[in-house]
Write a structure and sequence with these properties.
The protein is 66% helix and 2% strand. It is built from six helices and two strands, in the order αββααααα.
Length: 169
């Protein structure tokens, strides 16, 4: 089962993983931090590497337990973030934090997090565009004027009376 970590690259057919794991982990860490530049000048993507300690990656059952733990913790943080979307609290921050927790161990979460960061950056740049900003201000002002007119009409028509009768209860 490939979960996107470097677990599969550390196993040998003979079962001797200690020296191979250490050498592979050092090589992966060097490749991950350095990155490479392709012939066309663009940065080539290095493969996703598990952030688990080497002694955990050296044992298959321990590494699988580590991945399950990371998944459960990330899921709990994301669930709390979803709850905070309707409750008081920083919901989106918690959702992105849970995704970042998953991204330490799973390649698919790393890709989703990178895509999300790119989209948020693009949206922030787009929001700073003067034409878009002017349009958003005009739409917000129009919406506030319409809401004010509806509230004013309600107050003119019915006064400051609640739409339900509390005396019957």
């Amino acid at each position: 089962m490939n979960t996107g970590s470097d677990r599969g690259t550390n196993e040998s057919a003979a079962g001797d993983t200690t020296t191979e794991t250490t050498a592979q982990t050092a090589a992966d860490t060097t490749a991950e931090t350095a990155g490479t530049v392709g012939a066309d000048g663009t940065a080539e993507e290095t493969p996703h590497v598990s952030k688990a300690p080497a002694f955990i990656k050296a044992r298959r059952t321990l590494h699988l337990s580590w991945q399950v733990g990371v998944f459960v913790v990330g899921l709990a943080v994301i669930a709390a973030g979803v709850a905070m979307l309707v409750l008081p609290g920083p919901g989106w921050v918690a959702i992105f934090a849970g995704l970042a927790i998953w991204a330490t161990e799973f390649a698919w979460a790393h890709l989703v997090l990178r895509w999300t960061k790119r989209k948020v950056t693009e949206a922030a740049q787009k929001a700073l565009d003067p034409k878009v900003r002017r349009r958003n201000i005009i739409l917000t002002t129009t919406g506030l004027v319409i809401a004010g007119a509806l509230i004013g009409f309600y107050l003119w028509k019915y006064g400051l009376v609640l739409p339900w009768d509390l005396k019957d209860q």
